[in-house]
Amino acid sequence: DCREDVDTGDHAACLAAVAACETKIHAYNIYMGQVGAGAANAVLPSVYRELLGPRYPAANLSGYRVAFADRQPANNATTDCATTYFNNQDYVRAVEDAVANPDWFWLLHEVTHAEQCASLGGRERYAKRWWDEMETALAARGRTVDFRQTPEQLAGQLGAFFLLVHDSMPMERAADTKGNQVLAALEKCCIDRDRKPIRP
Question: Cα–Cα distance between 134 and 78 in angstroms, integer?
Answer without folding.
Answer: 15
